[in-house]
Amino acid sequence: MRKLPPPTLSSKEVLISCISNIMDNTLFTDVNSNLSLYESAEKSYERKGSTGNLHTIQSHSDINGQITKNQMMFLYNKMVKKENPSRDFYDILLASSRKCPFCGYGKSTTLDHFLPKSSFPIYAVTPINLVPCCKDCNTTKLAKTTDEELLFLHPYFDNVDDSRWLYCEIGIYPETVGFRFKVVKPSNWDKEKFDRMQYHFETFNLNDLFMNFATEEFSDNLFYLKDLHNSCLQNGATFTEAALVIKDDLNSKYISCQYNLVNHWKTAMYDSLRSSDVFINWLKNY
Length: 286
Ligand SMILES: [Zn+2]
Prior knowledge:
With 286 residues, this protein is mainly alpha-helical. It has 2 domains: 11-149, no CATH class; 168-285, no CATH class. It has 12 helices and 6 strands. Strands 1-2 form a two-stranded antiparallel sheet. A two-stranded antiparallel sheet has the order 3-4. Strand 5 and strand 6 form a beta hairpin. The protein starts with 10 loop residues before the first helix and ends with a helix. Bound molecules: zinc ion (ZN).
């Protein structure tokens, strides 16, 4: 999960733009007369999001008994359609992160309602509730019930790169090496934060994603490592000395990746390889 800076757009400016070209005068008046309600709901969202209490926001079916869920969906569709002035806000939010913050790798092509608009229509066009993401993560999130969804990490509020939590286990087979990623609780995290990280990791199938990346990275580097090992032996090094050269190389890659991102799958992968005598032995005989 990648943290994003919260958007600086307000629900008020988005709403005013959404109703600027509608034909429904009643809806225009109702939204205008309830702008302060949207603003106070937005402030409450920011307050609760920054203190980990978004789950305490109550679901609802309308806004002040005047604006229905379907009308809010209609206004959100105004944001989505390219010919509307409010589309500019959609594009600004989408462009705020080229990569999907939920998985960290997919291309952001849509906006996710962190609190679903079907259960929280007051936040249907509220920027702080709209997160750019990839189609796969959006689909995964849509498939969850509201209660489960509240356990996801929120890219605008939750920072999970304050400690290392991603680790990798390697499996040695005669012809190849396999990788499996897992989440381990940092000692300075409370249980609730760890449970949400684990739920996020499992629900978005991040192990499968990282396994695929790691397998490709390993294949790309295997010839290089074997060649480095053989060169050491040809230059008169013992097996022990050649193993140290390989470990130093893997250690350099680990340190460089860790410096970039402590919870990158490469950091976890190179950490596991550099510490594995079984892998070094496998390389010797490969
Ligand atoms: Zn994604």
